[in-house]
Amino acid sequence: MKRLNMFFFPYAGASVSVYERWKNLLSPSITLVTVELPGRGRRFGEPLLTSVDEIVENVQHTLIPHLDGSPYAMFGHSLGSIIAFEMSRKLSSLGYPEPEHLFVSGRAAPHVIENENMHLMPDDLFLAKIQELGGTPREFFENQDLLSLFLPILKCDYQASETYRFHNDDRSPLSCDLTVFSGLQDGDYDPMEWSEHTTGRCEAFAYEGGHFFLHDHAEQLAEKIQSRLLQPGRCCDE
Which residues are catalytic? Predict the structure, then answer.
């Protein structure tokens, strides 16, 4: 049985710990490789980055040792979706094979420009917006020590997300299959616009919930992921 590495990219403000439970949701033939961004988790203390290009350039070096000819896939939520997408393009430009499959979640297609500039808001308004999105425990906003640690991380990540602009650079679209997950109450965008960025198959699935729907539907998302990766004749069929 062939094994597959699956790289998971966190959303804004998060560390790889948000995907800890996924290790028990995926088949043993799928190795979950979490990609920690600078400034949090085990990389706490490293300088924070404020653009997707900087992030991709920085974390590509943690992926390359896993690219030993074995198949791989990618998953990202929100900011993580754009990082996974641009990382796929970056690795392809360096001569590495594309992922077997790209899974993106909670984010409009790369060419869709975000309208908000939350990272420019005063801290109190910024935090109020974060509370509206949900997904962050109430205790976080009441603990000044936590706020002082994580507010800079959140603002830098939101700056990276909101200032991101897709550049074609005369590169061909990806050719891998692409699956889009979204929340039914998470903004007004068309998930199928992601189809413009691959010549492979593109499909979309919507779930009840807001921006952090993935936490309530982790089992369903894991089932969809496995059904796409463990098909007979695919890279890691059982």
Answer: 78
